[in-house]
Please model this.
Amino acid sequence: MRTDPLFQPVMSEARSTRTVSLTFNEQPLQVPAGSSVAAALLMSGIQRFRATPVSEAPRAPYCMMGVCFECLVEIDGVPNRQSCLIEVREGMRIRSQEGARDLMFQPATVQSVEVLS
Ligand code: FES
Model:
């Protein structure tokens, strides 16, 4: 039976000596440069990335390849960012995503409706 952790950083991340500074929910972190935001947060011990809109259940990355959307966070004030697809940058301000977010688009208004008879 396999007992070692399934999450393993790729070798380039594990060997990186450069780090960048960022914050997660105002907590300062030093993470390896070149890693994804999701990998960096997981390596820093963060286990709760967001909460579901309905039950507020905690969520964390699952696929690490842009498919499941479980890794959504707010980055520099922009919500709904897939943290597994974004590389860390110096000074990033990351926040957990709590509940539902407003949609960014404005639906077109209906000007008039003609009824054909
Ligand atoms: S972990 Fe699945 S989309 Fe990011």
The helical segments are 11-15, 37-43. The longest strand covers residues 19-24. The two ends are 71 Å apart (CA to CA). The chain has one domain: 11-98.
